[in-house]
Specification:
The complex is a heterodimer of chains A (about 230) and B (about 110). By secondary structure, chain A is mainly α. Helices cover about 70% and strands about 0% of the residues of chain A. Chain B is an all-alpha fold and about 110 residues long. Chain B contains three helices and no strands. The chains are: A mainly alpha (about 230), B mainly alpha (about 110). Chains A and B meet through helix 1, helix 2, helix 3, helix 4 and helix 8 of A and helix 1, helix 2 and helix 3 of B.
Chain lengths: ~230, ~110
């Protein structure tokens, strides 16, 4: 009975949602704000990746809020799962093949993550993606070596340093420029690593922050395994 | 157009899981599927036929041949928020399991519909 009700309700929702979406032309024209960003991004921000320039430059303040939301989620998870006794993870290793290959791949995954967030203004990718890749590398180590530990002190310092860097870059724009997060460094030649002013600095900070936060989050979740 | 259909289908599948499934982990997975469906829908709205990613990696790419970058930037934000939501939901599930020793919502009193 419940299933039938659910199917009928969802059928109605789906029908009206789809009939509304039929009105929106598929694959035809862009929004005018998208046009503006595409035409001006290289001259105004020096970043060839338009998505990066929107996230870090045009809507940089929004990204600061987003990083704060992620920080709040990690803090909230830590608060919910907080245990006074301080449980240790169960010490049972994975098989030899998994352990050896995890040991080989782990530095390469960290390197890939760093590459993705350092080249955020040139290639598809950026701070959030790079941070997530770093966290998957640490997750691989967590899963194969149950005794693998990360220092929470180090993670906290890294995260705080990255967050402070973001805010300091923003205030530098306010002091030497005219607005918060203004691009005060020279833009350089597009399509080179050292270009786009403060965008790579901010994205490296975001990448380190996201990587540290997700690693701490995974550690907190894995600690609850009994 | 088929992308709109796929996005809406994903949203409906996720909502079905949320409405019907008894296991809380499956409900969280349903929420995550709804999130993916909405992301796909937003990306599909920004698609322009025969165009590439909005990255000017060489001079051959012109702004007129690129997809809309605004939905992509919004979806990047949405993915991160979705990750935070899923993480906090899973933490709550872990605490609920510690307290009630079950994941079945029918056995947890005061959590029925």
């Amino acid at each position: 009975m419940r299933k039938v009700t659910a199917v009928i309700l969802l059928g109605l929702v789906g029908y009206y949602l789809f009939s509304y979406f039929l009105e929106i032309p598929f694959g035809e024209n862009r929004s005018s704000v998208g046009d503006y960003y595409l035409e001006n991004t290289v001259e105004q921000t020096g970043s060839v990746n338009t998505v990066t320039s929107i996230i870090v430059s045009y809507r940089g303040f929004d990204t600061l809020g987003e990083v704060t939301v992620l920080f709040l989620a990690a803090t909230g998870l830590g608060a919910i799962l907080f245990d006074k006794k301080g449980k240790k993870r169960r010490r049972q290793h994975a098989s030899l093949i998994v352990r050896v290959s995890a040991h080989l791949i782990y530095p390469l995954i960290i390197l890939l993550g760093a590459y993705v967030f350092i080249h955020g203004h040139l290639t598809p990718g950026g701070g959030f993606q790079g941070g997530a890749i770093i966290a998957t590398g640490v997750l691989l180590m967590f899963m194969s070596y149950r005794s693998f530990e990360v220092s929470h002190k180090f993670l906290t310092y890294l995260e705080s340093l990255a967050g402070i860097t973001f805010v300091v870059v923003g205030f530098a724009g306010l002091i030497w420029g005219s607005s918060f997060l203004e691009n005060i460094l020279p833009l350089g030649i597009p399509n080179q690593l050292f270009s786009a002013g403060v965008i790579p600095i901010i994205y490296i900070a975001v990448g380190l922050k996201v990587g540290a936060e997700l690693t701490g989050l995974l550690d907190n979740l894995l600690k609850t395994i009994k | 157009m088929v992308y709109y259909l796929a996005g809406i289908l994903l949203i409906l599948i996720g909502m079905y899981a949320v409405l019907v499934k008894k296991n809380i982990i499956k409900i969280v997975i349903g929420l995550s599927i709804v999130n993916s469906g909405i992301n796909l829908l937003l990306i599909a709205i920004g698609y322009v036929k025969d165009s590439t990613a909005p990255i000017f990696s060489s001079d051959n790419f012109k702004a007129s041949q690129m997809v809309d970058p605004v939905p992509q930037a919004l979806v990047l934000t949405a993915i991160v928020i979705g990750l935070g939501v899923t993480a906090v939901a899973l933490a709550l599930v872990i605490r609920l399991y510690d307290h009630h020793k079950t994941l079945n919502i029918n056995k947890i009193r005061k959590l029925k519909w």
